[in-house]
Design goal:
alpha/beta; Rossmann fold; Arc Repressor Mutant, subunit A; 2 domains; three-stranded parallel β-sheet; globular
Length: 173
């Protein structure tokens, strides 16, 4: 049986073109993967883009686009750059890929209810409740109830005083 070697780059933030830092990280991962292949390892090299977050939503809105449409341009540039430098990755993952969404939701489904709800609430802002319901094979009403409960719990938790007497509040809940 072959030894296995797995390497991943950071998932690059999808608001800009590849730069020297992203190229450097990816080249190191590529060199390491090639070295392990030569040594007889079965390898898997993952790279990709992180396409969630407020910065992406704001940048997309400023450009007059939806977040995924905004990021598509930069993803194409990452893939072209990796091809130009002959970087031989096994998989390019986008956090907006259905495969990725389903994997995260299935992982979250194993967590206690509060964590499950919070992660779904914040990580999958663009997912509709019906989509989450379908993936988890859970009634839509249950998802809505969990989200409602999580918002209430989070609000009360975040209004409590934290270290140093500072008061933290989560906005937009």
């Amino acid at each position: 049986m072959l030894k296995k070697y797995y390497v991943t780059t950071p998932l690059y933030y999808g608001t800009g073109r590849p730069h020297l830092g992203s190229l450097y990280s990816t080249l190191l991962a590529d060199v390491s993967t090639r070295w392990h292949k030569l040594k007889g390892y079965e390898t898997f090299f993952l790279t990709g883009t992180d396409e969630h977050g407020q910065k992406i939503a704001e940048s997309a809105a400023k450009a007059g686009k939806k977040p995924k449409e905004f990021v598509d341009v930069f993803v194409a540039e990452y893939k072209k750059t990796w091809k130009d430098y002959r970087i031989d990755y096994t998989k390019f993952i986008r956090t907006t890929d259905d495969e990725h969404k389903e994997a995260v939701i299935n992982t979250v489904a194993c967590l206690p209810e509060i964590y499950k709800t919070v992660l779904i609430l914040y990580y999958f802002e663009e997912l509709q409740i019906q989509e989450i319901s379908n993936i988890l094979d859970c009634p839509k009403k249950t998802i809505e109830t969990r989200l409602y409960r999580a918002k209430g719990i989070l609000k009360s938790m975040l209004k409590q005083e934290l270290s140093g007497g500072e008061l933290y509040e989560l906005q937009n809940l």
